[in-house]
Amino acid sequence: MTTLNLPTPLALPAPPADEPILRVSNLTKSFGGRTVLDGVDFTLHRGSVVAFLGANGSGKSTTLKCVMGLETPEAGSIQLDGTELSNLRGGELTRARASVAMVFQKIHLVPRRTALENVCAGALGRISGPASVSPMFFPRELKEEAMAALARVGLADRAHEKAGRLSGGQAQRVAVARALCQRASVLLADEPVSALDPRAAEEVMALLAELAHEENLAVAAVLHQPDLAMRHADHVIGLINGRIEYSGEISGLDASMLSRLYTPNRVAA
Ligand SMILES: Nc1ncnc2c1ncn2[C@@H]1O[C@H](COP(=O)(O)OP(=O)(O)OP(=O)(O)O)[C@@H](O)[C@H]1O
C-alpha cells in the first residue's frame, strides 16, 4: 500500500509568532567576478506579501534563487524558521527546503497531465512507493488534498483538464495550488504574472495576497509592475545593482524612489 510519509519535523523549538519565517542577512553573490548581490538583508513574515522591485539585472531573481538553493551565495546567512540552512545537509536540508515553494514566470506544469495530477505532484517530496513514479497510484487522500487546493485557487471545475489546455492565468493558479499541496509555508514567486494579461495578472496577485493573509503564508514576489505591488504587497524591497535601496511600506514608495529604482543598472542584464 502507498504511504504518505510526512517529513519528520526538525527538532527545533517553534519561533515566537512575530519572528520572521525567513531571515536573509548579508547575501552576497557574484558571477564571473562581478558582484550581483552585495549584502542583501530582508525578512519574510507569515501572513504578508513582499514585492521585490528593481530594474533589469538588479538581482531580484538571483536573491530568490539563492534562497531556493538554485544558486549558491558566496556569503550570507539564510535562516528558515530559525534554522541556518548552510548548517543542514542531505535529508535535513531537503526537508527544510520542502517548506519553500517556488512559482516561476514560465509555468512548469506537465502539459499532458491533468490539473489535479500536476497539483498532486507538489506532494512528491513526501510520497514513497508507486505513487512517487506514477499518478495512477496517487492515494485517495492526496487527490482529496489536491482537489481542496484547486478549489482554493478557484479551479475545482478544471481538475480533470489537461494542463496544456489551460489558459496562462489558470495554469499559474494550478502552480499555486501545487505549492499549497506541497504544504509550503513560504512561497517565492519569480515574475509570476509577467506572461499574463492585465486581468489574469491582477487575479493571480490577488490570489497570492489572499493566500498570504488567510492561509498565513509568507509570499515574496518579484514584480515588474509597481502598480500591482501597490495594490497587493504589504512591504516592498527595491534593489539597485544588488543592494537594497528601499525596504518599507508600500505607502513610502514615492515617485522619486520609483524613478531611482528603474534607472538602468550600471551593468544591465
Ligand atoms: N547564471 C548566471 N551567470 C552569469 N550571470 C548571471 C547569472 N544569473 C544572473 N546573472 C547576472 O546577474 C545579474 C542579476 O540578475 P538577476 O536575474 O538576478 O536580475 P533581475 O533583477 O531578476 O533582472 P530581470 O528583471 O531582468 O529578471 C544580471 O546582470 C545577470 O545578467
Could you explain the architecture of this structure?
Helix content is 30%, strand content 23%. It has a domain at 19-99 and 216-269: P-loop containing nucleotide triphosphate hydrolases (Rossmann fold), CATH 3.40.50. The chain has helices at residues 60-68, 90-97, 115-120, 140-152, 168-181, 198-215, 226-232, 255-261, and strands spanning 22-31, 34-44, 48-53, 75-80, 83-84, 100-104, 186-190, 218-222, 235-240, 243-249. Strands 6-7-8-3-9-10 form a 6-stranded mixed β-sheet, with helices on both faces. The chain has a 4-stranded antiparallel β-sheet with strand order 2-1-4-5, covered by helices on one side. Mean pLDDT is 87; it is low at 1-15. α4 crosses α5 (168-181) and α5 packs parallel to α6 (198-215). A hairpin with a 2-residue loop joins β9 and β10. One of its GO terms (molecular function) is ATP binding.
In terms of topology, how is this protein built?
Elements: E1 22-31, E2 34-44, E3 48-53, H1 60-68, E4 75-80, E5 83-84, H2 90-97, E6 100-104, H3 115-120, H4 140-152, H5 168-181, E7 186-190, H6 198-215, E8 218-222, H7 226-232, E9 235-240, E10 243-249, H8 255-261
Parallel strand pairs: 3-8, 3-9, 6-7, 7-8
Antiparallel strand pairs: 1-2, 1-4, 4-5, 9-10
Helix pairs in contact: 4-5, 5-6
Bound molecules: adenosine-5'-triphosphate.
Adenosine-5'-triphosphate is lined by residues 31, 36, 54, 56-62, 267, 269.
